[in-house]
Design goal:
Length: 142
């Protein structure tokens, strides 16, 4: 519950304290979110999963949400003053995240995480505007 979470953050945050928030951006490419591939592309995901595991994948997993700047402003209400907004991660993040997911499902191990983290960090250095995968902001408590 976003509203209850923000109310609690506002309650415990010191006067003039800062909120740093990072969420998936509701941008042009949010449908390519590798963490929601099983929801957005169930046939492709089931095809790949059957190849790897020889069985059908359970699609009852929880979908995670994406937010626009407007969504975040509505959730924050008049309790915070947004100081900075950045939307980043365009091409490299989704590809590396999808690779991580596939490797972990196949091997049951998390491998190459250092390399994947480095590649994602490079992608997050640029602000892609509405095209970015991630939405990060700094807001000050009012």
């Amino acid at each position: 519950n976003e509203e209850k979470t923000i109310i609690e953050i506002h309650r415990v945050l010191k006067k003039n304290g800062y909120l740093i928030l990072s969420v998936p951006n509701k941008g042009f490419f949010s449908f390519l979110d590798p963490d929601n591939v099983y929801i957005n592309f169930p046939r492709i995901h089931n095809f790949l999963y059957r190849i790897v595991k020889k069985r059908k994948f359970d699609l009852k997993k929880k979908y995670h949400r994406h937010y626009s700047v407007g969504d975040i402003k509505n959730i924050l209400g008049g309790n915070f003053d947004i100081l900075e907004i950045k939307r980043n991660g365009l091409i490299i993040y989704p590809i590396t995240r999808l690779s991580e997911i596939l490797i972990e499902r196949i091997t049951k191990k998390r491998i190459l995480t250092g390399l994947f983290d480095l590649l994602k960090e490079i992608d997050y250095k640029w602000d892609y505007g509405r095209f970015g995968y991630g939405l990060a902001l700094i807001a000050k408590k009012i």
